[in-house]
Structure formats: structure tokens, C-alpha cells
Amino acid sequence: MRLCFLVEEQYRHDGMPLDVIRQLGAWGHQVDVLWPGRSLISLSDAIQAGSHDAWVLKTVSGGPGLTLLEAAASAGLTTVNDVRAIRGVRDKALAAVLARGTGLPVPVTYAAARPEELAEIPEAEFPLVVKPADGSSGRAVRLVATPERLLEPVAPDGSAGTGDGGGGLLIAQPYVPNSGTDLKVYSVAGELYATERCSPLHPGHDVRERQVPLTAEVARIAARIGEVFGLDLYGVDILLGPDGPVVVDINDFPSFRQVPDAVARVSAAVLELARRGTSGRDAAPVDGWAAGPEGGRASGQSKTGAGPASGLPKAGATPTAPRSAPPLPRPVRPTAPLGGGR
Predict the structure, then answer these.
(1) Tens of pLDDT, residues 275-310
(2) What is the C-alpha R_g of the chain?
(3) 104 CB contacts (<8 Å, ≥6 apart)?
(4) Separation CA 188–CA 56 (nearest Å)
């Protein structure tokens, strides 16, 4: 197969997706990489020629890569994930509305263009978690204890400094009391893996990042997100609050840290989604919130949601590996510990 990856400057040394690109090349596939943030791109040659089987995006929110992916989809080319699904989660305000509207456990969400406008939120809702609607990688996420502290300057990483995180729309949600540990659930084309890590709001909390058991309740929530948004490769940040799991963020094509054999699994999933995916022009998530004229499904999305990909090679595959790798094992049942549990 011939694939095109859009990779922005922030990820030029990142193992995900660079290791995936290397793995696909080792299996005998041709992978072209475009760097939208630091190179001239001929749209006529790259997109209108239609010479790639699928396009894959790994960029920051608000970066130029998403526009290029949308251009590829508009030309009828396959994208992994579906381009409208990506847009739906890149805008955190839109994602909160879509998720809460389908019954997913998402906090009440407020939006404002300026921090001082958030002072109109009832004081009983404080403390608030405030972050940019187009943020990524924990940028400018902060915990605001009282309305008076909304105007305290913050640096882009959320620490004390100047600025408000780069401008643009802000969203605010009531803080969910938790242990200081975030649960990150990754979906690799239908296979779910749960990991835990330190919350960005509690940087002093000592948490060893590791794979943990995936409960049936959390598995249902994570799988439902894939169905609602039409995503195949994604991550979900979940807090275990006093009233149960709460979804606080959704990411397309995340890092997949602590997923066993992540590079091989994600590479195999990209190939399978590229093979069976429809073009972005015909795609739409299961619930149809972004349905196109033909009312199709998201790229690579099965009728009932994301299904398990096939094609996990053995570790250490060489360039002579077959273009079609052996099937993946069936997903672990959600009530069973993953990778040995705690």
C-alpha cells in the first residue's frame, strides 16, 4: 500500500508516529511523510493525483495538517481517522456538547472568549477546570479555585506566567474530585487498553504510569465514544469520581503509551483501516452527527462501531515481512486484567 502521513513539527522526534512509519516501511509499504509546518507542499501533486491509499494525521490541534487532511477527504481520498471525526474531537467545546448529548458522562461545560466572562458561572460550581477549546497535550489546563482567581495570568503550560493560553475560545467544567490519577483508555481499531498516569492538575502526585485492568463500565464508555464520534484510533481521559467514571477529554491518534506492542498494533490497524475504509467524502460517525449527502460511515468504521484490526506481526519484523501481517489476537474481555493487571 502507499500511505501519506501528515506530521507536524511537535512530533518530528516522537515515537508515535515515526516508529509506525518505520514499521510500515519495514513491512514493504511505501510511506510518504509531509511536514505541513516546515515545508512547501504541492497540493496538486500530493492530493489531486490521488496516488495514496490513505492519509493519516498526527498534528497538534489548530495546526495546518487538519486542513490538508480535509482537502484530501474532499477529493474523495480515504483518511484514518475520518476527517470529520477528528474535527469533532479537536474542538473540545463541540466534543463536550456531542458527548453529553448522547448520554456520555461528561461534566457540565461552559464556554467563553475571555476568562473574566467565566466569573458569571455560579460560585457553587467552583473549583473549575479551565482550558483552551483547541488545546492539546495538556496546554494551559488549570484549576481555578474561586471566581477571583480567573484573571490570574497563566503560561501556556498552565503555570504562573503571562497570557491566557494563546487566546481563542475557553471552556470550563466543574472540577471532579479524584485521587490525582487520570485513567487513559486507548482504542486501537476496537481493541481497548487502560493505563493510568498522573493528572496534569496534580503534578506533585506520585503515580507510576502503567497498564491497569479495564472494567466493563469504562470499556462501555470508551467503546461508545468510538461509535458516537466515528473514531477508530483514539484515546479517552477518564476520571474516577465519587459518582463514577467521567470523561474529560478525547484525542484522535494519541501516544498509545503502555499499550503492549503499540507500534505493531497501530501499524496493523492503519493498514486494515486503509484497506476497508471508505473515502472521507462518504463517511460519517454512527450517530450521523456529521453525515454527508450519502449518509455513509466513518473511514474504517464497522456498522456497529470500531472492530478489531487484523495484521499484528511478530516483534522484530524485517523488511522482508509480508505486506499482509498475521491476524491480531481477539481483544481481551473488559473484565479481565490487561497485561497482568495491577
Answers:
(1) 986 433 344 443 444 433 222 223 333 333 333 333
(2) 20
(3) 221, 224, 225, 228, 247
(4) 14
